[in-house]
Amino acid sequence: MNDIDMNTLPKIEVCFGPECSDKGSRELAKELEGLLGTKCIMGDCRSQCANAPLVLVAKQGVVTATVDKVLAKIKQVQEDGNHA
Ligand code: FES
After folding, report:
1. What is the CATH number for 69?
2. Of 17, 22, 32, 57, which one has the fewest beta carbons inside 10 Å?
3. SS3 category, 38
4. Can you tell me which atom of ligand 1 is nearest the CA of 46?
5. In a domain, 41, yes or no
6. 41 backbone dihedrals φ, ψ, rounded to 5°
7. Ligand 1 centroid from CA 46, angstroms
């Protein structure tokens, strides 16, 4: 899928704080888990509420996150060789 290497998926943390939850982060996490077959980490608020929902891919922030933006970030992280 999108050239993503499913064997070296980076850690994906989805903010489950109040603002991000309001903006659909929990549904986004479910969708990502279904697509990627992996569990997302339930994150706490990281003061990026103005840009909710927030997702961290290998600790790199994706603001106003969508499935497509998160997948693009995963691909970028993999290309950079950072699987943290
Ligand atoms: S609630 Fe997600 S960054 Fe604050």
Report:
1. 3.40.30.10
2. 22
3. coil
4. 3
5. yes
6. -80, 135
7. 5
